[in-house]
Amino acid sequence: MSGSSSPVVLLRVDREAGRHTGHPRHLHPALDLKYIQAGLEAALHTPVPLLDGWLGRFAVDDFVARVLALRPRYAVIRGVTWCIGEAVRVASRLRGAGIVTIAIGQQVQHFARAGFAGWEEAYDLAIPGEAEEETPRLLVRLLAGEDLGQVRSGWRQRMAPGDVVLVQEPDALPLPRVAVDEMRDYAFPFPVQRRGAASRWGYVLTAWGCPRPCRHCTAIVRKSVGRDLRARTVGAVVDEVLAMQDEGVQAISFEDDSLLVHRARFLQLAEELVRRGVRVPWMANARPDELDAERVAAAAAASAMLLKVGVDSGSARLVERLGKTGDGDGWLRATEEGFARLNEAGIGSVALLMIGMPGETVADARASLALARRIRPDYVQVQRYQAYPDVPLWGELPESARARSDEYHYLDSATNCSEIPDRELAALQRRFYREFYLRPGFVARHVARYWRHYLSPVTLARLPATVGYLLRG
Q: How many CB atoms are closer than 10 A to CB 262?
């Protein structure tokens, strides 16, 4: 695209991906930017480029050069806490070149609550919260000649009390366009039941908002900000899935914070997927207390292949403290029963766990590992907890427990919210992975299910790095 020009460019900034993990990472598209792109293209009747810093190697100089080659007037920059420094450097360079810079994403809440050096010099405007509807409207006004200074003053007044904008009319949002290369770029990198040879993936949001009162949850792992559930109509969701199926998508990832959170709506969606002949298998996020027999059976009938389940901890005391539930023992029972139902239904599973949470002890962490062994998921993902500025419990934590701007949940960290000694916590994540994934029973079951996956040249090339990550210190 070098040499072409566009009035607006959309940017997703990241850090060098190789620093995050030593194993394959599931790269998700930035759906908020995809919705903004669709809205702008509908309004401006011209293509709007989106550069995703998650793909390939990221370096600020190279990224800025790619943007400048497009000669935009405006740049919308999506960043999160762990790469806010990179986002500010990109924005500063672009603003210095005469481009109007607009911040979206978790970085905006980070600055509002914790500040960041150089932020105000880097950005002309910032949109806190869910930017999908507001960004196209704002840019249309600016492109029509509205005074930037007046617009900036209005947005600063809105940010001062901590206000956020929310998507209010999800059915009115234009659907994102998905190119074939994007389907391949964002393929799920691990073998999954019912997946077959899926290499082209589509991503769908059916609702914004999560009504759960969890106190530790960050926008890094959420796809939306608000508490109230604002849902698209089930028919519109299935229309989008069918359109993707016709375009060659072989698998779908539903990106809702929890697809199963509203029982009646999920059952209606599952029924509609079956009734209208959707053939593509899909994955989604869920909670243990949503895995009742009715919802699991409906998911299986509608071609669910994998659920990523937010277990968080095997400690009843800890899940209560985090606001997951008022009944920690009931949470653990629901986890064991729910994973048993998934295994019986032939639906794959990922148990999403955390270590290093506020007040966590070594005994709590061991309880999580013991639970992971009992429930026998296809995979575990163990995040080292970081208290980012947008979490509800931020104000309760001492400064030493609050994550710094460059901390990522797979890196050794300078902050520690837990009661686990720093040195032990630093080694605990990999030890958790080793003790789960290198058990003979797990290896035998995994190879029996997925041995064909490991015959591909791409997978074989990744295997040494993955095993090396598991075996390190």
A: 18
Beta strands in 188-263 (DSSP E): 201-204, 207-208, 230-231, 251-254
Chain centroid offset of residue 218 CA: 10
- In the three-class reduction of DSSP (H, G, I as helix; E, B as strand; rest coil), residue 442 is classed as helix
List, in order, residues 6 or more apart from 113 with CB less than 8 Å away: 162, 389, 390, 394
Strands, sheet with 100-104, edge to edge from the N-terminal-most edge strand:
50-52, 8-12, 74-78, 100-104, 125-126
Per-residue pLDDT tens digits for 122-171: 999 999 999 999 999 999 999 999 999 989 887 777 766 668 899 999 99
Task: Return mean pLDDT, the chain.
Answer: 90
Residue ranges with strand state E in 218-303: 230-231, 251-254, 282-286
Dig out the tokens for 398 from the structure. 């001492």
d(CA 357, CA 202): 33
Separation between Cα atoms, residue 206 and residue 297, nearest integer Å: 20
What is the DSSP secondary-structure string of 290-330? G--HHHHHHHHHTTEEEEEEEEE-S-HHHHHHTTS-S-HHH
Q: How far apart are CA 334 and CA 289, in angstroms?
A: 5
- Beta strand pairing call for 100-104 and 125-126: parallel
The helix/strand/coil state of 67 is helix
The whole-angstrom separation of Cα 91 and Cα 86 is 9
The reported pTM is 0.93
**Average pLDDT of span 273-286:** 96
How are beta strands 207-208 and 230-231 bridged, if at all?
A: antiparallel
Residue 175 is classified by DSSP as: P
